Amino acid sequence: MRGLGRIVSAGVRALVAVLAILFVFLQVSDDSSRPSMSAVAAGDPPVATATRVGGDGRRTRFVADVTQPLGFSVYVIPDPFRVIIDLPEVDFELPAGIGQQGRGLIDSYRYGRFAPGKSRIVLDANAPVLIEKSYVVKAENGQPARLVVDLIRTDRVTFAKIHDRVERAMRAAKAAEEGKPETVAAAAGAGDGAPDAAGEEREETRQAALEPVPGEPEPLPVSGADGEGASPRDPAPLPKPRPVVADASDASDAGDTAGTPPEPEEGGGEERAGDPAPAGDAPQAGEEATVAAAGSEDGSVSEDAARELERVMGALSSPPPLPPAKPHRDIPDRRVVVIDPGHGGVDPGAISRSGTYEKKVVLAFAKALRDKLAASGHYKVLMTRDDDTFVRLGDRVKFARRNHADLFIAIHADSLRSGKARGATIYTVSERASDREAAELAAKENRADLIAGVDLVEENEEVTGILLDLAQRETKNHSVYFAKTLISEMKAKTRMHSRPHRYAGFRVLRAPDVPSVLVELGYLSSRADEKLLLSAQWRARVASAMTKAVDAFFGIKVAANR
Ligand SMILES: [Zn+2]
Questions:
Q1: What class does this enzyme belong to in the EC scheme (predicted)?
Q2: Gap from CA of 460 to ligand 1 centroid (Å)
Q3: In the chain, which residues fall in CATH 2.60.40.3500?
Q4: What whole-number distance in Å separates Cα of residue 449 and Cα of residue 479?
């Protein structure tokens, strides 16, 4: 997470950033911005056992059944409008493909891990929305605990107006936060699941989390028990900050629908019964105030930049041959290969009709490739993720550069709405895409951060200017060389797309100094490809072919029959 202060100080970008970040940072179950995430580590995480959406185009309710009450924060970000529900670590035991169909103001939604110890639900709104209310209901009367978020439609003008107020409030909060550096530090540490020193705060947090729940929760048709319209007039007491919500109900759009909260029902009947909530022991974790408490991830940027320039200039004076030989390695005889399984956590990537998730098949493949490469003994193999966690696009690139990668291989599996496209494609970076489909694919893959509800402040460019361009050109040549090597090895072992090498502006391929390719293993929209992607034998076969290509790229001679 990026500190608000840093964003604001980023000059012109600040405007974009602020707009992008917290239009309506409405409701936090934890009324302080104090992080208490790590409390989760003490027990089993809550399990989300069912989700559903109800309502119409004016008001829509999202409900998640959970095995224990939990802290959360919820806010809206625009362009496109998304509702972000930040949670402590939650296991999602939900039917495959749920979330692809929304209702009312919610087109679709997704969920998953966002970072260690943190989970997130992202609701895709089809219009400007405000959070009317949000709360957690305790398990009661045979119904599981529920997280409820009520959305109300608004218009852009109202949304913008509210934003100004929220922004001011956030700045004030940030200023206050800066007076408590240890809290900020703790917030930064919370992402690593570091133990919470202030254990006594947990109970308080829990109280805060449960406070909004009235004695008489709104009836929710969890198992078809409830009929229509039994909603109480008096909404649940609101978590802070209240004023924004008051604004929300002032929205002209919303005024005439007041008092008719939507009743979720979709999918309600077929849900599994929730696991019985583990009694009592649930350590409660309020999510930290997502923006205000976020720590800066500043490293030694300028130092890196200086080193980078040095390296770039060195590269210019004596262009490296193909394959590239890099200076200053710690282990000179072992090349560093970074494998980047696409998507993860809250970002599922493509989803096949039968419910196969891109994030899963690409991780499985990446592991197979890692094992083959590592078994050769020639490489130090690193992965940008090795579990179901979301990783920002910029962080994937940074990871490769920080580890002095000699080669970066991103793994994906595409999906097309129409057409019978099949086979693997290797992409290398280019400002100009080689064709429309390539351009669209890059645009789709580049949306990963957006999909996960990450603010879209540009990553700090560490090096800019013409030197970078020239270095990139050299790197690109290496990337293209590797892509061609890869294709010639892979085509012997699996089906390739009719144009197997294409170009587009993928963000993960933009490290100026690391030869990088993005492999689309196949199409999840093709049944045949999907079958291959799910086959361990196919993965092993293709991973072997790719290992041969990596060997060839680095000029490593291996026994012919390997
Ligand atoms: Zn992908």
A1: hydrolase
A2: 24
A3: 4-220+240-270
A4: 24
